[in-house]
Amino acid sequence: MSLYKYIFNPSDSISFLSVLRSPLTGFSDDMIFTLLEGYDSNRSLMSYLEEFSDTSPVAARAYNLFTKCLKLKGTLNSYELIKRLCDETNYGEILLSLQGGEQKYRNLEKLFSLVMDFERKNIYNPGELPMYLELMEANGGMNEEAFIDTEDSDSVKIMTIHASKGLEFDAVIIPDMDRKIDWIVRRDKPLFFYDEEKGIIWAGIKDEENPDYQEFYDRQILKENNASKRIFYVAATRAKRYLAFVGENQESPDKDEPSLNTFMIQMKWALKDRIVDTMEHTDGKSFISSPPLPAYPPDFATEAIKELKRKGYDGEIIKSYEGAPAGSISISMYQKYLTCPRLYYFQYLARLESDHRELQEEDLLIDKKTDALLRGNVVHEILSHLNSVSDRDMNEKIEKLIKEKVSKHKEDYISEDEIRKYIVNYLDIEKNLRKDRKGKYLKSFYEFRFSVPLHGNILLNGIADRVDLYENNGQIEVFIIEYKTDTVRNINDIKEKIDFYRKQLYSYMYALEKMTFREGFKTEVKKSYIYILQKGLYEEIEKHDREIEELREELIKSSRLLLGREDFNGYKCNVSGLCPMCYYKTLCDRLGCISVTDTVVGN
């Protein structure tokens, strides 16, 4: 992994030296001392290794290895890169030649499995693999050593029935013989079935009201039980000499399927009216050394509580426990909550969907045909494609994107001229800000998703419109850009919008500062901007550590309400000019919320 880290971060001296001291290159301590003699931090370690390679074959081999591996960056995914590095260095063979080599090689195979899982998630880039593995280890997602065992080893093996296929053991113990096999099918009983002959079959209010449904459902249960018989057969035939069944004794049914829904019942039914001389029964009570607990009558608890109350315990016998809140929150949730806690409760916690789209604050400002949310989505989609467009064909690509996106929403009154205005304003802003970007452009992340710890078991989630990375004097600088398509009429509107979205940018700064590494480099948030695309204006949001910390404390303080851990009465109604157009106003009034005219409406 040190070689992998170095490929994505050539300034990582620790990873560089770790590779040299590993079996991959065989550098001794004396060779490391010779390499770093007269070390100057302004020079790269690779330049020292190149000089050393003129007089040392070991150093020459190491230099060639680093040079070859550095060229692999950006050409392979994480799994392919790990495998390629092992092939280039013969790492597997090296591990097997060491003391305890078998264990080390198994650990390497386990690493391959973890990297494959990382790649399958398809949400990370290869440079984030080291951070991913560190988080897995920190949160207990990895054991220290890979499991080494064979079919013939003298040890107890715990495995699933499916994993035991093809294996045989002297003794096999099958637990949970009394566990119902069809419990998932019964728990997740569907409301509908599809039959090729009868079409969609509905359960009805009662099963007996639709015999077709019950017949089809019984067939599903029978199918599940038949499959379980084959699984039971696999488990039982793994034993060579001794086979033990552990479970509650259950009697054989008088009828066949679908009542054969446990391994115990299936075995009893198969052995019905048969005598097996080699089979013995052992009462589980014989394994209990201590005397059994006394049997209490079913109403013991109820009577005990009554007795406590007679003695004067009128309060709660067991006090309720309120654990620390846990879950994910976002700045958009918090801002919606600040707008109106009662609206937040109806919409996000109770999930009372209205028949219309969500009310937008800017919809009250002017009368217009274009849906603000839809317009914003179209503009964001177009802007997310501009990062791959060269200056030469920029105009052509923009026109193509505008026509393509607008044509999908002909009935929504979105015009090409309206969308084009926003894109032109975006290009003007970018041109004005280009002079502020120092250093070498590395990469842009569009709709950058993050999830970082906020406090305890609370995570802060979010999506930033764009994050730019620049390399400047050995430092990776981060620029955060947020696009806003809100309608603004004057300077006061603009100021209100900037103040409203300021906390959103603060939350992004907090998150990106928490994410120490990105693309294998240490990062620092340099600047953050809000683009007011309707007017072609922008505002730089300065980083203030005190205000960011205050926002963090606000989010923690409000987390119980945001996660729905408080009583309904804690979600008060914010009376404002938006109330008459709120889709939950009728419900709010019925619950006794203060209306716009400051009168209390009766229940």
How would you summarize what this structure contains?
With 603 residues, the protein is α/β, with parallel strands linked by helices.
Given as residue ranges, the uncertain stretches (5+ residues, pLDDT < 50) are 355-370, 594-603
The Rg value, from CA coordinates, equals 34 Å
The amount of helix comes to 40-55%
- Helix vs. strand class: alpha/beta
CATH fold name of the largest domain, please? Lambda Exonuclease, Chain A
Distance linking N and C termini: 66 Å
Key terms for this structure?
single chain, alpha/beta, PCRA, domain 4, Lambda Exonuclease, Chain A, two-stranded parallel ribbon, 11 strands, disordered C terminus
Please characterize this protein's 3D structure.
- By secondary structure, this protein is of the alpha/beta class.
- It folds into four domains: 2-138, PCRA, domain 4 (Orthogonal Bundle); 162-287, no CATH class; 329-562, Lambda Exonuclease, Chain A (Alpha-Beta Complex); 574-603, no CATH class.
- The protein is built from 21 helices and eleven strands.
- The chain has helices at residues 2-8, 13-21, 29-36, 45-52, 57-70, 78-89, 91-96, 101-121, 129-138, 183-187, 211-236, 263-270, 300-310, 331-339, 341-349, 372-383, 394-407, 416-433, 491-514, 545-562, 585-590, and strands at 169-174, 192-195, 199-202, 239-245, 326-330, 440-455, 457-472, 475-484, 517-518, 521-532, 537-540.
- Strands 5, 6, 7, 8, 9, 10 and 11 form a seven-stranded mixed sheet that branches. It has a two-stranded parallel ribbon with strand order 1-4.
- Helix 4 (45-52) packs across helix 5 (57-70), helix 6 (78-89) runs antiparallel to helix 8 and helix 17 packs antiparallel against helix 18 (416-433).
- The two termini are 66 Å apart.
- Residues 355-370 and 594-603 have low confidence and may be disordered.
